[in-house]
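Worked example 3. Consider a protein that binds succinic acid.
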Amino acid sequence: MTLSLFGNADDDQTWREELAPGAVVLRGFALPDETGLVAAIDAVTTQSPFRNMETPGGYRMSVAMSGCGEYAWVTDTSGYRYQSMDPMTGKPWPSMPAVFRSLAERAAMRAGFEGFAPDSCLINRYEIGARMSLHQDKNEKDFNAPIVSVSLGLPAVFLFGGLNRSDKSLRVQLAHGDVVVWGGPARLRYHGVMPLAAGVHPLMGAQRINLTFRKVA
Ligand code: SIN
Ligand code: FE2
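Given these inputs, the predicted complex is written out as structure tokens:
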């Protein structure tokens, strides 16, 4: 008998849910790393604090954001883009913590995307009521690489749509430790997050934190 590196849950695959071709939820995949992830989030956001950015249309986003790696996504009245400097600090974004990179690479691999090498991680903080409207991740140069999205803290309803904004969305409950990976034929699917319901998470408090890893350049 060979021992499974991933425990018994690996045998029945109940932790792996296919959303669409190229899109999968890995239930609880980040749980073994939760302590390291929380410490790394604190370290990154001490250097580059969470902030509510403004959209080109002049709205203040309900989700507060930070980032790390070579690039992170920013928006202001002049548009949205990736950049290597944090406009708030005038310095490069903090480097990507090893615990982040390792988790993202392993999750991509488990979802069937070999050799994912993220150069960007966005950190989204949802307080109660915060939401993210349906959008595509399409500011990256390389659509061959998947998106790896890690959920921590309060549960949320993730909307996973199609390639057109008007396509019906799946409503997927995401809990602390769940990781969603979408790439290949699913790479440009619309997605979003419903307003965060009130609650208190034992480790994270009254918030949800999402990490999204991308290959930007
Ligand atoms: C995003 O699409 O950037 C965030 C998704 C999430 O918070 O789960
Ligand atoms: Fe997104």
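Take a moment to read the result before moving on. The domain at 2-214 is CATH 2.60.120.590 (Jelly Rolls). The two ends are 44 Å apart (CA to CA).
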